[in-house]
Amino acid sequence: MTPELNSKIAAWRQKAVDGTLTLEEMKEAIVALRAGRVSAAIASATSKSKKAPMAVPSADSLMDELFGDMREVSK
Q1: CA 12 to CA 5: how far, in whole Å?
Q2: Directed axis angle between helix 23-47 and helix 59-67, to 10°?
Q3: Using one digit for the tens of pLDDT, what is the confidence trace for 53-70?
Q4: How far apart (Å, rounded) are the C-alpha atoms in residues 3 and 15?
Q5: What single DSSP character describes residue 1?
Q6: CB 28 within 8 Å of CB 16
Q7: What is the pTM of this model?
Q8: Cβ neighbours of residue 70 closer than 8 Å, sequence gap 6 or more
Q9: 7 CA to centre of own chain
Q10: Which domain holds residue 57?
Q11: Cβ contacts of 47 within 8 Å, gap of 6 or more
Q12: Please, which residues have CB within 8 angstroms of residue 48's CB and are 6 or more apart in sequence?
């Protein structure tokens, strides 16, 4: 992770503890963290011999599971 991402994660964590994390910041955090997980999954899959890469859900799919119809209202 980049120093910038680490800084953002620390800020999001503090806001979550304080109860001031907004829905937009939560969405941004999920997208950023999921992007890192996709990269990790791809790297792991390519390092394994002849195993198919595991399916990693997209950030949009995860957001739909978490927020459902709320996403459409907030757009």
Answers
A1: 10
A2: 140
A3: 667 778 888 888 888 766
A4: 18
A5: -
A6: no
A7: 0.50
A8: 23
A9: 15
A10: 3-74
A11: none
A12: none
